[in-house]
Amino acid sequence: MADEQQKTAAVVDGERPLTDKELEAMLRKSEKVTEFPEVTFDEFTEPTWDEWVEACNALLKGKPFDKIMYTKNYEGITFDPIYTRKGTDAILPTNDYPGMGDFLRGATVNGYVHEPWGIAQACDETLPAENNELLKEEISKGSTVYNIKLDTATKNGVDVKDAEKPGDIGVNVTTVEDMSVLLDGLKLDKYPIMMYTGAGAKNLLALTVAALKGAGHDVKTLRGVIGGDPIGELVKTGKTETSLDALYDEMAETIKFAKANTPELRTVFINSDAYTDGGAEAVQEVAYTFATAVEYVRQMQKRGVELHDIANSLYFCFNQGANFFMEIAKLRSLRMIWAAIMEAFGAEEADRAIKVHGRCARFTKTVVDPYVNMLRNCTQTFSSVVGGVCTYDNPPFDELIRKGDVFSRRIARNLHVMLQEEFGMLSPIDAAGGSWGIETLTKQITEKIWAEFQKVEEMGGIIKALEAGYPQAQVADVLAKRFKALEMRSDRAVGVNMYPNMTEEPLERREEDTPKLKKEREAAVAAYVADIDTNYLAGKLAAVETVEGAIEAFSNGATIGQVAAASCKAEAPETVEAIAAHHWTERYEALRFETEDYVKKTGKNVEVFLCNMGPIPQHKARADFSTSFLQVGEFNVHLNDGFQDGEDGDQYEKCLKAFKEGDYDVAVICSTDATYPEIVPKLAPMIKAAMKPSATLFLAGAAPKDMEQVYKDAGVDDFISVKANCFQTLKMLQKKKGMIE
């Protein structure tokens, strides 16, 4: 970081901007200034709190102010309806500056002015040559980081011949030749590299260095991160392949190697995916990720690694969720908390700054109506930039369905470009600084993260906590709350549990031909290893515990599987309860797919008749609500303009006649609360008598307590309203239809 602060920015319009060091000196000098001119706003009349509440109540039209205007989130923080200076003056960071102190206001003095956030779009094509082309394409179109996403087999040290599904989530690499093809022609002296390597970094770091040295590349210019996260992988899978001590030894080895050979490359990539994919809220995500990082710091110190070197080896990845202001506060908060943690370890000021990579949370994405993911990604990326990430990956909107294509990648990448070049997000330094609301949220989430982090520390650290099942239970509790909120539609997923798009054409999954790709990869690897001197290689494989030894082995023809097997110590692995990955709408999507499968097999669906009573203004609101409610299950809702009294009969007979003309599984009486006492006792028995035994009669709207039993006695089975459990209601109707057991 010290080297970065010494860099001089490029000359702009003939004038040289201040370097970070010059700006820092100016800011520190400004701390001595204590007198400022008074600014008044006498021309404005400041309303009182009571006056503002009175104005709100007028708009709420009788709805309870305290219930409507205060919002509690999953972090246990309540959003106030309005924030004022009077309530936040004491916590404003008036003595804090970006790039120093507690780093609340940013990791660097100049923010993004001289060094924009890195555009790190993940490249995940299966074949090394194709992924190489994709990496070059991304850079040519605006990306500024080579973000290489590896497949599961490569991260786990499994050769392609033994891989269950090579290329499942990224590029497959087995030999140094594969890595050479993958890195061929990349401008690694100009752009940083990013590679998450799974539980350990040693073997893939060695494979990368071997390939670059073989191509004559000066590895000292290599920068970015090639890093692993053993505890993160433990949480995802529930086990390690060897002992944690062995993995810590490997981690220390990579840090020492990087210090001597690739000083600008970080080798520990601490990832919050395991928690956020499991449904964790922001407090849990940061607290448990920092508890993991603290474990690494302690273990590295035990192995003789200097604190400065540890600090400069760590790179964090956090997921950005859907709560816009909360996510901004989270990023500001975590910089401050990490600075405090490193200060407690005795780190110098420059070593307290945190390096943060961000990505849009997979948990918040949907498979159904996936184009809405573009909007979700937009707000999450925006909050990340305002919060101050160092690098960012905005995944394609279709990431839950398939690997991205030209269109989805372009849309994802261009969001960065627009934010940087069109929206002016490179100019403000600490864009959220001074915001009464965000400063308050930052303080609140900081206190909660610190308290949760301390709980883990009191349990003996993250490993003891995981062995006791504490983080798993906490995350599971939040996941259950999220699912319940979706069931009740208090949380709204547009296109899924609200406003379903019944004309949607599902995206083509474009499944890869895995057997064909595996065969192609196996042939390439077999051709490469055919000329290898296996006896000579055996000697090299006996010395792969160091990065240098692994480099030698790879350079002499070893495969990733051979080096992994030779490196793995026969020590007891760690096991804990894993946190399974989810995405928030998966249950609704499974429900919808069950309907689709049943329709394809039988040609039948849940048929819904709307008993729309009276003119359109009388029934429309309830009819629209009920239609959307039931279409969430992709049921077939039959629409009509309502039934009214006329010369051709009364509304009840007309409604009954229309109902009898079809074969319906559901009927919904739709009108107003004022008309229901007259309509329901007469219409409900008529419709109920005409229904088949398995059919269900709903009333649209929540009945007053004194009328609920009256309506049920008339034949109403249940009510469709904002209080109804949408998910359970739809499952019940599927079961009645025979779609599910």
TrEMBL record:
Necessary cofactors: adenosylcob(III)alamin
Pfam families: MM_CoA_mutase
SUPFAM superfamilies reported in the protein's UniProt record: Cobalamin (vitamin B12)-binding domain, Cobalamin (vitamin B12)-dependent enzymes
Keyword GTP-binding in annotation: no
Domain Methylmalonyl-CoA mutase alpha/beta chain catalytic: 73-566
Top-level taxon in the UniProt lineage: Bacteria
Keyword RNA-binding: no
Keywords: Cobalamin, Cobalt, Isomerase
InterPro entries (alphabetical): Cbl-dep_enz_cat (IPR016176), Cobalamin-bd_sf (IPR036724), MeMalonylCoA_mutase_a/b_cat (IPR006099)
GO biological process: propionate metabolic process, methylmalonyl pathway
Entries under Gene3D superfamilies matching the protein: Cobalamin-binding domain, Methylmalonyl-CoA mutase
Signal peptide: none
Gene Ontology molecular functions: cobalamin binding; metal ion binding; methylmalonyl-CoA mutase activity
GO cellular component, one term: cytoplasm
UniProt family annotation: Belongs to the methylmalonyl-CoA mutase family.
Protein name per UniProt: Putative methylmalonyl-CoA mutase, small subunit
